[in-house]
Amino acid sequence: MENTVIIGVLGFIFSLLMLVFSAFLLTVKTNNKIGNILLASELIITAIDCSAFFNHFLFDVNLTLDMLRIKLSGFKNPLLFLYVLSVIYSNFKLKKIHLVHLLPVFIGTAILIPSFFLQDYDGKVAFYNNFKENPEIIFSTNLGRILSVAYFIASVYYVLRYRKLLLENHADESNFKNYKWLKQYLILTLVGSVITISKGIVRDSGAFSETTVERWRIFMLLFGMFFIFWLIFKALNTPKLFRGFDVSLKTSKEMETEVAEDADEEQIMNLKNYMIKEEPYLNPSLTIRNLAEQLKIPMRDLSVLINQELQQHFFDFINEYRIEKAKKILSDPSKSKVTVLEILYEVGFNSKSSFNTAFKKHTGKTPTQFRKSVV
Hints:
The protein is mostly helical. The protein folds into two domains: about 5-235, Up-down Bundle (Rhopdopsin 7-helix transmembrane proteins); about 250-375, Orthogonal Bundle (Arc Repressor Mutant, subunit A). About 70% of the residues lie in helices and about 0% in strands. The chain has helices at about 5-25, 35-50, 55-60, 65-70, 75-90, 105-110, 115, 120-130, 135-170, 175-205, 210-235, 250-255, 265-280, 290-295, 300-310, 315-330, 340-345, 350-365, 365-375. The chain is elongated, with a radius of gyration of 27 Å. The termini are far apart.
């Protein structure tokens, strides 16, 4: 089978799978409907963009529609960014201000009106024959590359900020599923972009044969197939979108200037005494908001107290008390029959992997190794 046929078949299957999965996202019941719509829109545009690999086998390609297909691909970057925000923030809503993300695509399309869209058929063919040398295309291509980098950096920034918010507000590792999902999604998106750019460099350099270029296209489409199957696998294993943060929630560093610069030593002592006496960390779903309510102090004060003054994330602060409690149980000869699984639930963890990871981080040993060393 010729490479062009293989490319056409792979492109058709990939686009079809993208459209089917998008239909699933648009119809499945979820609390994050906006997020699903944004992700589905990104996938639909990707499917339309990839139709270039097979549409010439099915019909004569209309040059105007093909140019619109090329320009439409510019929406993928802002859609990815907005999708990231919709997953991070539970109360994210699309607003008029978000229309600014559409401007670059509209500008890139508008500058083609006199030189391409208003031309007759022969003029459009001449434009295509000299495609990469046209100043409008050079401008649009360079602008698109700059925006791609900018949107990706912005997405990474918000995902890292999301991780910080999780560490500062939650002590339950199960709340990190959204962060892990976004991190993996961005990594695969980056890999896909690198492969696409590399294919473009190989194609445009003129130093490689057409066979080599076709192999790069096949490699790119195979990665695309892996990507869509990964999405389907994720949807089957984690069908629910998890709760995000309120848009107005800030990190402790962002809140630091809003509260007194010098932390009250009495507050720190009260906090530590309360942790020892009341053991609120035994609640596996404890959040910084819950603890602030119990201590009857503002949440932002407690956040700055723990994350800035004590130089610990809330996640590590709580787990430290849990590990100390677990160490006491593991060191008690009268509780030698109590299993590690029973202990981890008793001290506030809800999974063996998170308990083992936290325990080794604080002690340098696994729970079993620690028990053997003290018996």
